[in-house]
């Protein structure tokens, strides 16, 4: 909005605007006094005095001063946009030279944002006769309603790579739980009874105090498998049906090839790097090791928590710029 743009002016631009409010009327008054005073006091002709007054207006008018700053800011913002950098306004642009920490989101910013399925595990002892194909189909039919990159990757893998038919399954009452997963009701073809389906990260499915899955409690070795996948840099998507843990799908994303070069360039300018992600600590640490140059890791952050990470760094007398991509 116009009010936001006005409030977000660069400090130098606000100074020039304030300066011009005083300077411009003074120049106009001085020119008027010159036009009148020269003929009355020094006997200069009226035409000559008016000419000199106009010359003073042209020379002393602050138009160039007032226009120069916004033109420079707009030019810089446009140049940055062409390079794929979106800057909110003139103020962040001007204070950029004072920044000591830059916060990057992980998925889609430091990584390619194109996760792919690498492993599928079915939980032992579920007593529901689940196999790998059924687990993938159940997860895919739920994730079809999701906009999360991990959900899209699962659907793509099931329908195109594995070419599994999910038309015999349907979901209703879909509800996304930001930063954790999703809940819905699953119905199989030919059956009227619906079952509650939950798909999400391991904390959401396994460690939830109210809905903690029943099957995993007796399988500490399976928990170790999950931790092992996460330590390899994989993001784990767990599946639970009617309170029974069915298994999980491990997905991996790759660091952006240009990320290392960009972060090294920032480090050479004595800028520290923070990674902020909704993923778990093990995955974030693995990606950080692969990329290098990362000083701070904030993991398992909900969208609202990411703002708090920036505030925490600001409390350390730093001025971070946040760079977001995925989640």
- Coarse shape: elongated
Rounded to the nearest angstrom, the radius of gyration is 31 Å
Tell me how many strands there are: 10
Largest sheet: 6 strands, antiparallel
Low-pLDDT windows of residues? 1-7
Residues in helices, as a percent range: 40-55%
Euclidean distance between termini CA atoms: 27 Å
Query: How confident is the prediction overall: mean pLDDT?
Result: 81
Summing up helix and strand content along with how strands pair, one would put the structural category as: alpha/beta
Query: Which strand order do you get reading across the main beta sheet?
Result: 2-7-6-5-4-3
Short description:
By secondary structure, this protein is an alpha/beta fold. It has helices at residues 2-7, 11-41, 46-60, 63-82, 90-95, 106-110, 132-143, 149-161, 202-206, 220-231, 259-268, 281-291, 303-315, and strands at residues 101-105, 116-122, 169-177, 181-188, 195-200, 234-241, 244-252, 272-276, 296-298, 320-323. The protein contains 13 helices and 10 strands.
Describe this protein with a few key phrases:
four-stranded parallel beta sheet; 327 residues; 49% helix
């Amino acid at each position: 909005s116009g009010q936001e743009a006005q409030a977000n002016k660069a400090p130098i631009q606000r100074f020039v605007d304030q300066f011009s409010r005083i300077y411009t009327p003074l120049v106009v008054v001085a020119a008027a006094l010159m036009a009148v005073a020269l003929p009355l006091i020094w006997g200069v002709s009226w035409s000559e005095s008016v000419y000199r007054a106009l010359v003073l207006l042209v020379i002393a008018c602050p138009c160039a001063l007032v226009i120069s700053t916004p033109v420079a800011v707009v030019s810089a913002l446009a140049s940055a946009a062409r390079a794929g950098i979106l800057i909110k306004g003139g103020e962040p642009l001007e204070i950029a030279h004072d920044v000591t920490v830059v916060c990057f989101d992980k998925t889609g910013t430091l990584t390619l944002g194109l996760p792919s399925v690498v492993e599928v595990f079915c939980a032992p002892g579920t007593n529901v006769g689940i196999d790998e194909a059924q687990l993938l189909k159940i997860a895919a039919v739920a994730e079809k309603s999701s906009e999360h990159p991990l959900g899209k990757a699962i659907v793509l893998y099931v329908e195109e790579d594995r070419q599994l038919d999910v038309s015999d399954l349907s979901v209703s009452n879909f509800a996304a739980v930001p930063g954790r997963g999703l809940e819905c009701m699953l119905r199989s073809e030919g059956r009227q009874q619906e079952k509650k389906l939950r798909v999400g990260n391991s904390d959401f499915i396994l460690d939830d105090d109210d809905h903690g899955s029943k099957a995993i409690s007796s399988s500490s070795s399976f928990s170790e498998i999950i931790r092992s996948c996460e330590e390899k840099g994989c993001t784990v998507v767990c599946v639970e049906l009617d309170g029974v843990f069915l298994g999980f799908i491990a997905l991996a994303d790759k660091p952006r090839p240009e990320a290392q070069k960009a972060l090294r360039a920032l480090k050479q300018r004595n800028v520290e790097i923070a990674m902020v992600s909704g993923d778990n600590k093990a995955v974030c640490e693995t990606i950080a090791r692969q990329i290098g140059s990362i000083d701070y890791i904030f993991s398992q952050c909900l969208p609202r928590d990411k703002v708090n990470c920036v505030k925490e760094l600001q409390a350390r007398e730093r001025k971070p710029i946040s760079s977001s991509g995925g989640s």
